[in-house]
Specification:
Lipocalin; 2 helices; 32% strand
């Protein structure tokens, strides 16, 4: 029977190595003037593979976000504009968190001036959201001592990646 500690270590190494490669590629993309659509799709595939390896090694299932029981929460407190601090040197990389009239149970995340509806976010509780496109990633909103949302933290396959500060 395999040693679970060993399996956890291997899954961690796979995720860290994949994230390290993604960071290197992202840095190279910034130096060369940004990502192409194909590079973004490759990143999505890498993220999916990392997540599937981690789930397999840990003996877990991919979260079924579509069938989560809806938690009672006022999602409107998260709606706003956030300065994506990791991408601060990129011209107008503002992140919008929105809600649509026809879908009050979810939030959507998009870059400012993006024409798409955005990435659908599923509330998991405790100020935490996930998406179906990247089910292993999390966005966790930060709340100050007065109970106001002041920013967010992004986690890529469980690893901290960047933060955003609320600007509106």
């Amino acid at each position: 029977m395999p040693n679970k500690n060993y399996e956890v270590k291997i899954a961690t190494y796979v995720i860290v190595f994949g994230s390290f490669l993604s960071i290197i590629f992202l840095s190279c993309d910034k130096i060369q003037g940004g990502k192409t659509k194909e590079q973004g799709q490759q990143d999505s595939i890498v993220a999916k593979i990392e997540g599937e390896v981690a789930l397999a090694v840990l003996g877990k299932q991919e979260p079924d976000l579509e069938n989560l029981a809806l938690k009672e929460a006022d999602l409107s407190v998260y709606i706003g504009e956030y300065a994506n601090l990791k991408e601060a040197y990129v011209e107008d990389d503002t992140v919008l968190i929105m809600q649509y009239e026809d879908d009050k149970n979810h939030l959507y995340r998009a870059k400012k001036n993006n024409t798409s509806k955005g990435l659908k976010l599923y509330f998991l509780g405790n100020h935490t959201f996930a998406s179906k496109k990247y089910p292993m990633d999390r966005i966790v909103f930060d709340i100050n001592t007065q109970g106001k949302v002041v920013g967010f933290r992004d986690y890529y396959n469980g690893l901290y990646m960047q933060m955003g500060k609320r600007i509106k």
